[in-house]
Write a structure and sequence with these properties.
The complex is a heterotrimer of chains A (289), B (269) and C (339). Chain A is mainly α. Chain A contains eleven helices and no strands. In chain B, the strands form two sheets. A six-stranded mixed beta sheet of chain B has the order 6-7-8-3-9-10, with helices on both faces. The chains are: A mainly alpha (289), B alpha/beta (269), C alpha/beta (339). Chain B: It comes from Arthrobacter horti.
């Protein structure tokens, strides 16, 4: 391969990158649409439920969809539609809290590490690496073992487990930014380091942070659903998608897969939408920088 | 007449790395910059000229030697924001790359206002007036002050960088290859601007460049650096018209010009 | 004249898709290059000099709109497909880029880089290709070539790496070398060394060369002829050695005057007002008129044709017949500059 042939390939690659204008595109907007719908359901759906999602009626177990029960009922005769709508709240709130806490902590830690450098940076990198080595789910299981089952302990544990995920990405982006001459120019003017970090470095890497927080939301949703699935997360009778997949398992064996099927479909759709959006946002932040 | 030079650098040295990987970037560099003077540092990549500048501005700590500003010791980088600001009002710097030396999300006017806010207590109106003044000084109009860096050309961005450095009203301006990335027609505009500013404000220049013709245009005195050390030092006219050191001669002869034949200037190939 | 030219560019106009619209980057560019000659393409950033060479090398991004002709040895370059295009790019023309490091694979040895083209394109056996690589490195003035073959790009300085690129470019014995600012990233002493080698290789191998540079002095000292680009157009064409002594366009003259000299300090540099424009942003009429000290109303009406100026060359300035010879002496260009 001559330099010229290699250049030809590079031109095509650059052209592809150039065409990325920073627009989200069809897939991105579809994902946004799906997520808006899901969030809307979580926000107002439970208020509109005409049936109590926790009303047990053993005589109505495993009913097929009907006018009274739009998606049928589960093993305890509870309305599946009402439970899915109600469950969206717990399914979305958990990952949202995880992402919020881990992004704020991870970003602050990374910015501080980059600004102060030296031993502080070294130590925080080592600590993040150590935490990163633990699977989030394992940490969450450990936390529930220590502090008892329920959402609170799991969310707290995952929030810590996700810090390195955000922190490592923010650190490398902030490091790149800090080495640009404009930061040196602000330093020699005597602008405070905290101000440079928050007013200059942070806005310039915010696109990347949002993109990665979005992706982290998908992972957190999966982790929390998994936790509820094995019975350590959301406790019965509170409805939750992950827990519904778990309780629906017995139904599958008896030939009633609806509960597990609907709940996992919602998880898959949400995670897929979040991942697509996260990917588009990542591309966008690359295109704009 | 004040006999203390504005800036004195004495036996300055900088080593990077440790043990076997240690390299010497700057070794035993000494020079003085007089008030209102203009000193050129010329050299090729790896000559240590940029490291010298970074030590003087306080972005790098010297391994040995001293830096004196008006007789005060400035060898170690400033500790704390207050000291940084004080020093910022003495010495400022303009970098080479006009694209990365501005925050791409900050409007030009805000950039200048921010720096003014660091050094002076000004109300909103006064800040606005000063920003306009600075813009005028470097030839930027109201519309350009309201725009983001991406709307400006390389030459205009470099004007912003100069205005930002001058906002602190420094006594010394370090220009680190500040015109090297610019097109010839823009380079001439910036060089004229720099000579106007020097006349108007009496600011002294430490002008770092690899370009002998640009050095001739801007600097009264010149030092030539190679491999971290000074090989020649004198008035710019003397250094360029009658170079004493073989390296200075090689540098001069390597510059393409009328009737230049690369074969005659190379001694090493 | 056309009969003996190796490369002929005829009314070349190129538009590229940028942010959803087609932007003109080259406008009606024509020139000829004879075998073994060096032609300098001079201009500032965005002038179209680089784009011209990329068009010739068929390196335009997909979606580019090209009209006009580029003929290499009589063959239309835009008609080349498949094997013929591969042969053209791998054997007839070679390119040397400004950033040698970006154009080498950091994890492959210098030797692999050099022998690859010989083995794949010329079907040379490995042993023979290595011997040839050693020969090539020696030709570009690299000491201990055997040892260099085993090194990686990061172990070589910028100047040495650019010599390797020259060796690789001439390895296939092309008839045309496209050199895109090959020494701009190098120190001035290294530039001189690399230029010596490039010129020597060019004449030893009898190759023609298109030499892109922003440096007028460099172009006039290493090329036979030069063309000056402004806003995607050719504004002047003449013998290289006369370029900065007797320019044929106000733009060239202004560039010569704006550049500081080593020999003396100018009180004030006669700077050009404004900044270089691209073909896309160029106004009606002469693209240079807004910055030109000699512009008259007639200049702003229509695009001037490329005029023949005696035996000396061509100029895209309608006032050239009256201004010829007086451009450099002219005062009046020191207007106050506003960006």
């Amino acid at each position: 391969m001559t330099a010229l042939a290699a250049e030809g390939r590079m031109v095509a690659r650059t052209a592809r990158r150039m065409r990325r204008t920073g627009a989200l595109g069809l897939s991105g907007w579809t994902a946004v649409g799906a997520l808006v719908l899901i969030v809307l359901i979580a926000a107002v759906g439970p208020l509109l439920n005409s049936v109590d999602p926790n009303a047990v009626s053993l005589s109505e177990a495993y009913q097929n969809p009907s006018a009274a029960h739009l998606l049928g009922t589960d093993a305890n005769g509870r309305d599946l539609f009402a439970r899915l709508v109600d469950g969206s709240r717990t399914a979305l709130t958990g990952p949202f809290l995880v992402v919020l806490v881990s992004t704020i902590l991870g970003t602050s830690l990374a910015l501080a590490a980059v600004w102060f450098g030296g031993w502080f940076d070294q130590v925080s990198v080592r600590v993040m690496d150590a935490v990163f080595a633990f699977p989030g789910l394992l940490l969450a299981i450990l936390a529930t073992a220590l502090f008892g089952s329920g959402l609170t302990a799991a969310v707290a544990a995952l929030s810590i487990a996700y810090i390195p995920y955000i922190g490592r990405i923010v650190r490398s982006a902030a490091l790149r930014e800090r080495n640009l001459p404009y930061v040196a120019a602000l330093r020699v003017q005597g602008v405070h380091g905290v101000l440079i970090s928050l007013k200059h470095i942070l806005p310039n890497i915010s696109g990347l942070i949002v993109a990665n927080a979005t992706l982290a939301f998908g992972f957190a949703l999966m982790d929390l659903a998994g936790l509820s699935f094995i019975g350590l997360g959301v406790q019965a009778p509170t409805p939750d998608w992950g827990a519904m997949v778990g309780t629906g398992m017995s139904g599958i064996l008896q030939g009633f897969p609806d509960e597990a099927l609907f709940a996992s479909a919602l998880i898959v759709i949400t995670v897929a939408a979040v991942n697509v959006l996260g990917d588009r946002l990542t591309e966008r932040s690359e295109a704009l920088s | 007449m004040n006999t203390t030079p504005l800036l004195a650098v004495e036996h300055l040295g900088k080593r990077f790395g440790k043990g076997r990987h240690q390299t010497t970037a700057v070794a035993d560099v000494s020079f003085q910059l007089a008030e209102g003077g203009s000193l050129g540092i010329v050299g090729e990549s790896g000559s240590g000229k940029t490291t010298t500048a970074r030590m003087i501005i306080g972005l790098e700590a010297p391994s040995e030697g001293r830096i004196l500003f008006k007789g005060q010791d400035r060898t170690q980088p400033a500790r704390g924001v207050k000291e940084l600001r004080e020093r910022g009002r003495n010495i400022q710097i303009v970098f080479q790359d006009p694209y990365t030396s501005l925050d791409r999300r900050q409007r030009i006017g805000d950039c200048l206002a921010e720096v003014l806010g660091v050094h002076f207590r000004l109300d909103r109106e006064e800040t606005k007036r000063r920003v306009r003044e600075l813009g005028e000084l470097v030839g930027l109009d109201e519309r350009q002050l309201n725009s983001l860096p991406k709307a400006l050309s390389g030459g205009q961005r470099q004007r912003v960088a100069i205005a930002r450095a001058l906002a602190a009203e420094p006594e010394i301006l370090i220009l680190d290859e500040a015109v090297s990335a610019l097109d010839v027609s823009i380079q001439a505009q910036i060089l004229n601007l720099l000579s106007d500013i020097r006349e108007e404000r009496g600011v002294s220049y430490l002008f770092i460049s690899h370009d002998l013709a640009v050095i001739r245009q801007v600097c009264d005195d010149t030092i030539v650096m190679r491999h971290g050390a000074v090989v020649e030092h004198g008035s710019t006219a003397a250094v360029l018209d009658a170079p004493q050191h073989p390296y200075t001669r090689l540098l001069r002869d390597s510059v393409p010009r009328d009737g230049w034949d690369p074969a005659l200037s190379t001694t090493r190939s | 004249m056309t009969a003996m030219s190796l490369l002929s560019v005829d009314s070349l106009t190129v538009k590229l898709p940028v942010a959803g619209e087609m932007r003109t980057v080259l406008k009606d560019v024509s020139f000829e290059l004879e075998p073994g000659k060096a032609l300098g393409l001079v201009g500032e950033s965005g002038s179209g000099k680089s784009m011209t060479v990329r068009t010739i090398a068929r390196l335009l991004p997909p979606g580019a709109d090209v009209t006009g002709h580029v003929r290499f040895d009589g063959t239309e370059v835009f008609d080349l497909r498949g094997e013929a295009l591969r042969k053209y790019r791998a054997g007839d023309v070679s390119m040397i880029f400004q950033d040698a490091r970006a154009h080498t694979n950091p994890v492959r040895r210098i030797g692999d880089f050099l022998t690859e083209a010989l083995c794949t394109n010329q079907r040379m056996p490995k042993k023979q290709a290595e011997a040839r690589a050693v020969e090539l490195l020696a030709e570009v003035g690299i000491h201990n070539p055997e040892q260099r073959l085993r090194q990686y790009p990061h172990e070589l300085s910028g100047g040495l790496l650019q010599r390797v690129m020259i060796a690789a470019a001439v390895a296939v014995k092309p008839r045309l070398i496209l050199a895109d600012e090959p020494t701009t990233a190098l120190d001035v002493t290294t530039q001189a060394e690399v230029m010596v080698i490039l010129k020597r290789m060019q004449s030893e191998y009898g190759m023609a060369m298109l030499f892109i540079t922003h440096d007028l002095e460099l172009a006039s000292s290493v090329c036979d002829d030069t063309i000056v680009f402004y806003a995607g157009q050719v504004v002047e064409r003449q013998q290289a050695s006369r370029l900065h002594r007797d320019p044929l366009h106000p733009y060239t003259a202004a560039l010569v005057r704006a550049r500081p000299e080593i020999e003396r300090r100018a009180g004030r540099l006669p700077a050009l007002p404004g900044h270089p424009t691209t073909a896309y942003e160029a106004p009606d009429g002469c693209a240079f008129a807004p910055r030109c000290a000699f512009a008259q109303d007639a200049c702003r009406v229509s695009v001037p044709p490329l005029l023949r100026i005696g035996e000396q060359g061509d100029s895209r300035c309608v006032r050239m017949p009256e201004l010829h010879g007086s451009l450099l002496a002219a005062a009046g260009t020191t207007q106050e500059v506003t960006p």
